[in-house]
Amino acid sequence: xxxxxxxxxxxxxxxxxxxxxxxxxxxxxxxxxxxxxxxxxxxxxxxxxxxxxxxxxxxxxxxxxxxxxxxxxxxxxxxxxxxxxxxxxxxxxxxxxxxxxxxxxxxxxxxxxxxxxxxxxxxxxxxxxxxxxxxxxxxxxxxxxxxxxxxxxxxxxxxxxxxxxxxxxxxxxxxxxxxxxxxxxxxxxxxxxxxxxxxxxxxxxxxxxxxxxxxxxxxxxxxxxxxxxxxxxxxxxxxxxxxxxxxxxxxxxxxxxxxxxxxxxxxxxxxxxxxxxxxxxxxxxxxxxxxxxxxxxxxxxxxxxxxxx
Length: 309
Ligand code: 8YV
Known about the structure:
Layout: E1 4-7, H1 12-20, E2 24-26, E3 43-46, H2 54-57, E4 65-68, H3 78-83, E5 87-89, H4 96-111, H5 114-122, H6 125-129, E6 142-146, H7 150-161, E7 165-169, E8 180-182, H8 185-191, E9 194-197, H9 211-217, E10 222-225, H10 234-243, E11 248-251, E12 270-272, H11 281-300
Parallel strand pairs: 1-2, 1-3, 3-4, 4-5, 6-7, 6-9, 7-8, 9-10, 10-11, 11-12
Helix pairs in contact: 1-11, 4-7, 8-9
The structure holds 2-keto-D-gluconic acid.
């Protein structure tokens, strides 16, 4: 049995590269108990959003590393890992551009009604009925970034180039000349037209964008989420979208993906993306490489490239 176990849905290229390292494969963590020679597994290459916690770790007594494919590692119980002396790594930075691009694209797509306008042209309405209705100027607005980490900063930089006034929430004020820091999300939402959520996932940020935050954003407000479905109170978001308490949303992440709440499908003021923020050939190749580099570093006894615990 190889010492590496690759868990999750890998692309053909990643599969081949992991196989070249000698990895064995498993579709998801639920099959762990049936893995032959699991006692010999020292490194897991993990991909996906299913929970990987103490119960899974205890099925792998020789485990020393969980190398996550993704910057967000909220699926992995890092406290349980640390308690067992298991290191966890992620794949930061290499996906910042793609995720930030998608955030901006969803904001433009929602504000400029691009999905509806496209349907207008395709259906023949353009020819039959004339110009599409006027929509909404996005450049020059006020943007609020919730979470000014690496991805949040990339989004803010892009929106600044769209002549926007940048406000943000972070736990403490950062070195951001010309941008406005808010210590609480309600104050941020009150001040802005667009709220872009770029928080880390996990217990600490669950429902952080609450009903109160959405109410403070108001009926002209657009919410964009590229973080995790958990960071927004999703029931409150659906209510706000249905009632017009906010204008619209661009969402790449949801609770219970991919079986998302069907209420979203009935809304015409939401741009829905299938959690594809990092989903380009280039970035996924870089993420796979960084994951494998962490695995190789661990097996070779050298320092991990991007440890999180
Ligand atoms: C996923 C992501 O990892 O990096 C993250 O945190 O959410 C994504 O890039 C990707 O969907 C693969 O599971």
